[in-house]
Design a protein that fits this description.
The chain has five helices and 25 strands. It is mostly beta strands and 427 residues long. Among the domains are: 52 residues, no CATH class; 102 residues, Ribonuclease Inhibitor (Leucine-rich repeat, LRR (right-handed beta-alpha superhelix), Alpha-Beta Horseshoe). A six-stranded parallel β-sheet has the order 3-5-6-8-10-11. The protein has a five-stranded parallel β-sheet with strand order 18-20-22-24-25, with no helix packed on it. The radius of gyration is 31 Å and the shape is elongated. It starts with 5 loop residues before the first helix and ends in a 5-residue tail after the last strand. The relative contact order is 0.05. This is Leucine rich repeat containing protein BspA family protein.
Length: 427
C-alpha cells in the first residue's frame, strides 16, 4: 500500500473544512508539518486569528458573504461608498496619531472603512459566493475576481444590450417582454433563472453555451417565433414548468443528463413533431407534451418509470405509443383527446388505469385491458366513438362510472366475474 507524501497530503488537505482539520493533519507526522504554510491561497474561510497559519498567503479566497475580508470591502454600493468617504474623513483626519481604540464588548461589528489603512493587501481576491453584476462594475479597477455573477434587472443598465462575459447566471425576468430577435449567451453562463426570456415574441434564435447546466421555470414561455432550440450536451436540469411552452419549435433533442421533463415543458408547442429522449429520462411530468398538435410518434425509453397526468393530452396526430415496461399506472387524462391514437402497446405491469386516460381517442377501435389491471377509472374510454371491441382482464375488480359512455359501436362488453363494482352509466 502506497504512503501519502507531503505533496499529495497538501492536495488532500484542499478539501478540509476547518482550521482544526489542518492542525490535526499537521500533527500526524513531521512530513505534514507546515502544510498550511505551503498554500498561496486559503482553502477554508479565515479569521483574524487563523490567517496567521497561512504564512505564504497571496490570494484571498472568500467563500461566503459572511467571511472575513480583512478590510477589502468589495460589496460596497455607490451609496455606501459615499457614506464610507464621509466616515473616512471623520476618522482619518482628526485622529492622525491615534494608535489604539477600545470598543465596548457588545459592539461586534467594526466597519472596515473606519480604519482604511488597516486593511490587508493581497495580490488578488477571489470571491466564490453569488454577487450581482453591479458589484463587478463597482470593483472593475480592483484586484477582485468574481466567480459567480448574476445579471439581474437592476444591473441590466450596465450591459448596453449585451450580456457581459463575467456573468455566470442570468436572473429572473431579465428580458421578459423584450423585443430582442436573437441572443447569444456567453460561454460563462451556467444557469438561466425563471422567465428570463418569457414572452419575447420576436425572439427567433438562441445560442446556448456549452457550460449551461440549468434552465429555469417559464424561461422561454410564449416565445412564439422561436422555431429552433439546440440544448447543450451538458445540460442536466430543466427546472419548473412551462420552460418552452407555446414556442414554435419543430424538434427537440433532450440531452443525456436530463432525468425529468417538467410539467408543461413543451405545452402547446403546436409545431413540435420530433422528440428524442435518451435512456436517462425517468419521468415525464404532467402535461409536458400536451397540445403538441404535430407530434405523431415518440419513442419512450425503458428508463421511464413515471408518466404523469395529461402528459400527451390533445396530441392530435399521435398515432401509436409503446409504454415502457416500468410503468404501472396510466394517469388521469394521459392520452385524452389524442384523436388519431389507434395503437397502445403495454409491455409492463399496469395495475391501474386512472380517470379519463383514453377519453375521446376517436381512432381507437379495439383495446385489451392487460393482465394485472385491477381498476379502470371513471370515463376511461368515454367518447371513443370507433371502439368496437374491448377485452377486460380477469384481474379487474373495479370499473368506474361512464367508463364506456359514447362508445356507440361497442355492442358487447364482456365483464369477467371478478368485477366487484362498476359505476353508474358505465356504458
Amino acid at each position: 500500500m502506497s504512503k501519502l507524501d507531503s505533496y499529495n497530503g497538501m492536495v488532500v488537505s484542499q478539501h478540509f473544512s476547518s482550521i482544526r482539520d489542518f492542525i490535526s493533519f499537521e500533527q500526524v507526522c513531521k512530513k505534514f508539518n507546515g502544510t498550511m504554510a505551503k498554500f498561496h491561497y486559503n482553502p477554508i474561510p479565515l479569521t483574524l486569528k487563523t490567517i496567521e497559519f497561512f504564512e505564504s498567503l497571496e490570494t484571498l479566497y472568500i467563500w461566503q458573504l459572511t467571511d472575513e475580508n480583512f478590510g477589502n470591502d468589495y460589496m460596497a454600493s455607490k451609496k455606501q461608498r459615499d457614506n464610507e468617504n464621509m466616515h473616512y474623513h471623520i476618522m482619518q483626519h482628526p485622529f492622525k496619531k491615534l494608535k489604539k481604540v477600545c470598543y465596548p464588548k457588545m459592539m461586534k461589528l467594526k466597519p472596515s472603512y473606519w480604519f482604511p489603512n488597516a486593511s490587508v493587501a493581497f495580490f488578488k481576491i477571489v470571491v466564490w459566493h453569488d454577487v450581482e453584476y453591479q458589484v463587478v462594475v463597482d470593483n472593475k479597477d480592483k484586484n477582485v475576481v468574481f466567480k459567480n455573477v448574476i445579471l439581474n434587472k437592476e444591473s441590466k443598465k450596465y450591459c448596453h444590450g449585451t450580456i457581459p462575459e463575467e456573468v455566470t447566471e442570468i436572473g429572473e425576468e431579465l428580458f421578459e417582454y423584450d423585443s430582442i430577435t436573437s441572443i447569444e449567451i456567453p460561454k460563462s453562463v451556467t444557469k438561466l433563472h425563471n422567465s428570463v426570456f418569457e414572452s419575447c415574441t420576436n425572439l427567433t434564435s438562441v445560442s446556448f453555451p456549452d457550460k449551461l447546466c440549468i434552465i429555469g421555470d417559464s424561461c422561454f414561455k410564449k416565445c412564439n417565433h422561436l422555431n429552433e432550440i439546440v440544448l447543450p450536451a451538458h445540460l442536466f436540469e430543466i427546472e419548473g414548468k412551462n420552460v418552452f411552452s407555446e414556442c414554435n419549435i419543430t424538434s427537440i433533442v433532450i440531452p443525456k443528463f436530463v432525468t425529468s421533463i417538467p410539467s408543461q415543458c413543451f405545452f402547446e408547442c403546436k409545431l413540435l413533431s420530433k422528440v428524442t429522449l435518451h435512456d436517462s429520462v425517468e419521468c415525464l411530468c404532467s402535461f409536458c407534451f400536451a397540445g403538441c398538435d404535430e407530434l405523431c410518434h415518440i419513442d419512450l425509453p425503458d428508463s421511464i418509470t413515471s408518466i404523469r397526468a395529461g402528459a400527451f393530452k390533445f396530441c392530435k396526430k399521435l398515432k401509436s405509443v409503446t409504454l415502457p415496461s416500468k410503468i404501472d399506472v396510466i394517469r388521469t387524462v394521459t392520452f385524452e383527446g389524442c384523436v388519431e391514437l389507434s395503437e397502445i402497446k403495454m409491455s409492463g405491469q399496469i395495475n391501474v388505469m386512472e380517470n379519463y386516460c383514453f377519453r375521446d381517442c376517436l381512432a381507437l377501435k379495439e383495446f385489451s385491458i392487460p393482465n394485472g389491471v385491477t381498476k379502470v377509472g371513471d370515463g376511461c374510454f368515454a367518447g371513443c366513438s370507433m371502439l368496437s371491441k374491448i377485452d377486460i382482464s380477469s384481474t379487474v375488480r373495479t370499473i368506474g362510472k361512464q367508463c364506456f359512455k359514447g362508445c356507440g359501436l361497442l355492442k358487447i362488453i364482456p365483464l369477467p366475474i371478478t368485477v366487484e363494482s362498476y359505476g353508474a352509466s358505465t356504458y
